[in-house]
UniProtKB/TrEMBL annotation:
Family: Belongs to the GatB/GatE family. GatB subfamily.
Catalytic activity: L-glutamyl-tRNA(Gln) + L-glutamine + ATP + H2O = L-glutaminyl-tRNA(Gln) + L-glutamate + ADP + phosphate + H(+); L-aspartyl-tRNA(Asn) + L-glutamine + ATP + H2O = L-asparaginyl-tRNA(Asn) + L-glutamate + ADP + phosphate + 2 H(+)
GO biological process: glutaminyl-tRNAGln biosynthesis via transamidation; translation
Its EC number(s): 6.3.5.-
InterPro entries noted in UniProt: Asn/Gln-tRNA_amidoTrfase_suB/E (IPR017959), Asn/Gln-tRNA_Trfase_suB/E_cat (IPR006075), Asn/Gln_amidotransferase (IPR018027), Asn/Gln_tRNA_amidoTrase-B-like (IPR003789), GatB (IPR004413), GatB_Yqey_C_2 (IPR023168), Gln-tRNA_amidoTrfase_suB_CS (IPR017958), Gln_synth/guanido_kin_cat_dom (IPR014746)
Gene label: gatB
Protein known as: Aspartyl/glutamyl-tRNA(Asn/Gln) amidotransferase subunit B
Native source organism of the sequence: Spirosoma aureum
ATP-binding as UniProt keyword: yes
PROSITE patterns, per database record: GATB
Length: 501
């Protein structure tokens, strides 16, 4: 039970939940995008038929020997470098012993005393729940370690038995463990959002929480506001979305406050979260480190990350969101808003840069991607980089507007046509559908004179100083041309004619 840090009348008069603060730590598991598993050559692929991506090594048959996947080590180092962690040069793996049906060997190969990445942090932007004001804070990492995933237990596939799919067993994981430094549900949600964005930028995990390739466990305790001691933590599992992580934090905080306020005691336990009710339910009392009986795996030799290997990984690091943001605002001259939105996902950022390789109108490229193109994308299309039209064709469409071949309005129509016919040429589509702008000066001059002749009163008002009538004249000419006239040229012709006649 947590004791009050200050029981003055002023403090006791505050709302119950204001008198306490949450202390939160997150454990984020990221499945790595290697082609094979971490200790076996089985395919690392989601969606295969149950128990097809397995082997005698994954199943732990007697006499089999694991072999570490080099790419998994490199991916773990990448995330450590991105977070500013210290990279452990001498790495060993240990057996974490526990007996669940989804663990075919009876133990999990993991890192115990020496995680591959130590320390570091991730900067997040969050909002104060009391004031609504935004602020920045760095969520400190305790460590990042490598391990293998367990299989999957399926409880609703058979009325009488639990079914087991070992395809996932042996999938390489990194577990990112924060310090207990998170204070609010919003901080937890923003941190998880940044982790997902970071692993996608690094191309080490697809960050798909629906498929389980990114999973999060939450440790929550409470203490009186202003106290420094930590309370008893409770772990909440079964969180499959960022929203549910935030809901679970709030729910568990309220549950623990109610227990303490009623004179009860918080039990260290593991709970599962029910997304349909927003409540958590007890699963088991939490194991301690001694319960797992860690010891170094005798079949795996230590892995040494040499200076040369580390330098090679560093040399192949991609640009991260903060670096790209700086590039977009300086090299491309984009406003802060554009740069922030485009760098929100690696896929959008890469697509924008691809478009800019074919056009120098960087702001127009940003406007098209943030507007019409993005509105056509689903989350899956974005994740799979299935953009509705190629970067080169979008750039050609921008070029047609820039050189006056088609209007901005007509370009929207051409975009729709291109999405339906992605291999077509933008200018040919505009020609076929009568969307090429009329830049015939003589023909347009005739239309201008027709309009001005038809509106003598308005012409007189314009010449007396009512200059806002210019838009009306241009609009009437555009109507007569059935939208095919170049608005800029029409504007010039109307202005010139009004000044000279």
């Amino acid at each position: 039970m947590v004791a009050e840090a200050n029981s003055s009348p002023e403090v006791l008069a505050q709302p119950t939940e204001v008198r306490y603060e949450a202390v939160i730590g997150l454990e984020v598991h990221c499945q790595l995008l290697t082609q094979s598993k971490i200790f076996a050559a089985d395919a690392n692929a989601f969606g295969a038929e149950p128990n097809t991506n397995i082997s005698v090594i994954t199943l732990g048959h007697p006499g089999t020997l694991p072999k570490l996947n080099r790419k998994a080590v490199e991916y773990a180092v990448r995330i450590g470098l991105a977070c500013g962690s210290e990279i452990t040069r001498h790495n060993i793996f240990a057996r974490k012993n526990y007996f669940y049906p989804d663990l075919p060997k009876g133990y999990q190969l993991s890192q115990d005393k020496g995680p591959i990445c130590v320390g570091g942090g991730i900067l997040v932007k969050a909002k104060d729940p009391q004031t609504g004001q935004s602020y920045q804070t760095t969520i400190q990492l305790h460590h990042i370690h490598l391990e293998e995933d367990a299989g999957k237990s399926i409880h609703d596939g058979d009325e009488w038995a639990t079914q087991l799919d070992y395809n996932r067993a042996g999938t390489p994981l990194i577990e990112m463990v924060t310090d207990p430094c998170i204070r609010t549900a919003d901080e937890a949600g923003q941190y998880l959002t940044e982790v997902r964005r970071l692993v996608r930028y690094l191309d080490i995990c697809d960050g798909n929480m629906e498929e389980g390739s990114l999973r999060c466990d939450v440790n929550v305790s409470i203490r009186p506001r202003g106290a420094t001691n930590l309370g008893t933590k409770v772990e909440v599992k079964n969180l499959n979305s960022i929203r549910n992580v935030m809901r679970a934090v709030d729910s568990e905080f309220k549950r623990q406050v109610e227990i303490v306020e009623s004179g009860g005691r918080i039990i260290q336990e593991t709970r599962t979260f029910d997304a349909s009710t927003g409540l958590s339910y007890a699963m088991r009392e939490k194991e301690t480190m001694n319960d797992y009986r860690y010891f170094p795996d005798p079949d795996l030799t230590p892995v040494v990350i040499s200076d040369a290997w580390l330098a090679d990984i560093q040399s192949r690091m991609p640009m991260l969101p903060a670096e790209l943001y700086q590039k977009f605002t300086t090299h491309y001259g984009l406003p802060d808003y554009d740069a922030a939105l485009l760098t929100d996902s690696k896929e959008l950022a890469d697509y924008y840069e691809a478009v800019c390789r074919h056009t120098s109108n960087y702001k127009a490229a940003s406007n098209w991607i943030m507007g019409p193109v993005k509105s056509q994308l689903t989350e899956k299309m974005l994740r799979d980089r299935q953009f509705p039209i190629s970067a080169e064709r979008l750039a050609s469409l921008i070029g047609l507007v820039d050189n006056g071949t088609i209007s901005q309005t007509a370009a929207q129509q051409v975009l729709t046509l291109l999405i339906a016919q992605p291999d077509a040429i933008a200018e040919e589509l505009a020609q076929t559908h009568g969307l090429i702008q009329n830049r015939n000066t003589d023909a347009l001059q005739s239309l201008v004179e027709e309009v001005l002749t038809a509106w003598p009163d308005k012409v007189a008002q314009y010449r007396k100083g009512k200059k806002n009538l210019l838009g009306m004249f241009v609009g009437e000419v555009m109507k007569k041309s059935k939208g095919s006239a170049d608005p800029k040229l029409v504007n010039e012709l109307v202005t010139k004619t009004l000044q000279t006649t």
